[in-house]
Amino acid sequence: MLGYSDTIVTTFFATLGCLFAFVAALTTDVGNDGNAVSVGGSTLNNVISEDPEFTDVIENITVPAGRNVKLACSVKNLGSYKVAWMHFEQSAILTVHNHVITRNPRISVTHDKHDKHRTWFLHINNVQEEDKGRYMCQINTVTAKTQYGFVKVVVPPNIDDALTSSDVIVREGDNVTLRCKAKGSPEPSIKWKRDDGNRIVINKTLEVTDLETDSLELERISRLHMGAYLCIASNGVPPSVSKRIKVSVDFSPMVWIPHQLVGIPISFNITLECFIEANPTSLNYWTRENEQMITESSKYKTETIPGHPSYKATMRLTITNVQASDYGNYKCVAKNPRGDMDGNIKLYMSNPPTTQPPPTTTTLRRTTTTTVNTDGYNHTPLNGIGGEGPTNSVIVIDKLGIKYQSNLNEIGKSEQKLTGSNPKGYDWSKGKDNGSLGLLLDQGSQVTCWLLALLSLMLPNRFHE
């Protein structure tokens, strides 16, 4: 017993066969048919001993939308029978023999009369997605003979703007969902990427380079999420398409001051800096202690330098020829619809920089020999000061004066004494510092001076006796 669906299919084919037979009868040209003969003034159709047969299968075709397609149906022993093309899914007769039945202007039919096995071609121009499905080639024999070919129409992806998110503006800390829908055949897949190449921050614990999903959900959005996102649709049929969706995050200004205390001498120029972050872009200006706004002049030059990302900027205030009245507090202010913030910089007077040449070091080598010959007094030269070798000393000269630093080789190794009377027990190895001259005499010179002084005191007494 046939089911309900089987009954419908059987009825459909019976109806379609009757319709095909009726159309074939209307389109048959008996006088020109090679299978008709005239006997005694009447026309009789010869009976074909062999039934028509298909000589080849109909190839399945995959075609991109917009292209043209041609289906071939080859038949032998056709005789007086007719060949028809039908679209199974649409239940439509397209052509019968050389005649186009459908009103679709993109459909046409041709055949090769010189082919041994006559081939009937169904042409579909500018293929659309609606043209996909099974196509039947049918011969109108008593029991209709049918074969099928499948046309698959592939359609490149196309983003549906009505179902896809556009540019969004959200406040920092909110959640946001970006949606993207696309049509095509086969059904396209959706992938998200950032336009700047950075990773997508899903939440505090998840960052990805790209994400395949129709809906991109961003939790507790921050300024780090700000930028353009690409929704990319692809289905293997070129070209892939994308849509750029800009995410703007609003937040009140924030100010960072690299140097809160800045020292500068009088008559110098100075540039003060503040770093700011704000979105939307903030209104930026400078004030003094009295809250009076600083305007551009020969004294002051103000500028705001955009940064990267776009919500960053640098504020600069240049003060030329600083005077005493310029010292004090300066404030950089940033305002936008979400709020305002300022930062304070104190400018104070500092000493001018000094430029001092490096100290010059001069090494002197001196050799001193002193011999005094008198009646009754013979003095032997001091060891280390006489002719036994040079005495080394170092003089350091700078722009403040002359400083002396001793570096004697012998004095310091052993104690040096006179070969005569030394009533005060003076230690000749230590020397003295003559500060009034700004120069320290070396040890040999001091011993010589003391020796001459003693002799000058003793000689007069000798003459007196």
From TrEMBL:
The keyword Cell membrane applies. Keywords: Cell membrane, Disulfide bond, Glycoprotein, Immunoglobulin domain, Membrane, Repeat, Signal. Residues 52-147, 157-248, 253-350 form the Ig-like domain. SMART domains: IG, IGc2. The keyword Metal-binding does not apply. It comes from the Eukaryota. GO terms for cellular component: neuron projection; plasma membrane. It is found in: Cell membrane. GO terms for biological process: synapse organization. Pfam families: I-set, Ig_3. InterPro entries: Ig-like_dom (IPR007110), Ig-like_dom_sf (IPR036179), Ig-like_fold (IPR013783), Ig_I-set (IPR013098), Ig_sub (IPR003599), Ig_sub2 (IPR003598), Neural/epithelial_adhesion (IPR051170). Residues 1-25 form the signal peptide. This is Ig-like domain-containing protein. It comes from Drosophila ananassae. The lineage of its organism: Eukaryota, Metazoa, Ecdysozoa, Arthropoda, Hexapoda.
